[in-house]
Amino acid sequence: MLDGGESNVVPDEASDFIKFVNESPSPFHAVESARLRLASAGYEEIKERDNWSGKLKNNGKYYFTRNRSTIVAFAIGGQYVPGNGISIIGAHTDSPCLKLKPVSKKASAGYLQVGVETYGSGLWHTWFDRDLSVAGRVMVETDKHQFEHKLIKVNRPILRIPTLAIHLDPGVSDNFKFNKETHLTPLIATATKVLTNGSDNSDKNDKNESFTPKHHPVFLDLLVKELDVK
């Protein structure tokens, strides 16, 4: 127990950092959060492919993005001249997570599962028996047959990776071991629940036939509703 008459007031910087982290569950969200902050701070967006000659000015502040997963921002000093030194700070936009597989449709023992793979060096044992959701970028075809990207962050639990009850695995409290490929697979629904809700998860009834072998329709339907697209 700590006791030193310390204040319980959370510094504004800490609260702001937590807000940034909560708004940035994927590299795409992190870049968008940073982009909005830079824009509000007076930074001008430029394009990496454009000619910058004559466009960059002293005391100017600029940024550009690449693939919406990387962002570069820089400020030019008032007395800067070409050849002067520069200071650079780098950071990650990504973090360890479970990443949706290109073919995520799986099922076992009457449960619909979403196939994932580990990304980064995560503490994977902490992902079991907790509420999980999804976040990232979805490519959507518009009515004009063009593609645009949309960010998605489902703010409710939809997935779970269960473990066995302690009496079925007595030694687990001493040494919890698992297979990342077979055990680290979230459940999204039971086959019975899908049928009860009137949603046929079979391949033959899915309108998006090209996607049917890759992802459960119940999962695609969830994305469609969250993004409010067709």
TrEMBL record:
Protein name: 74_t:CDS:1
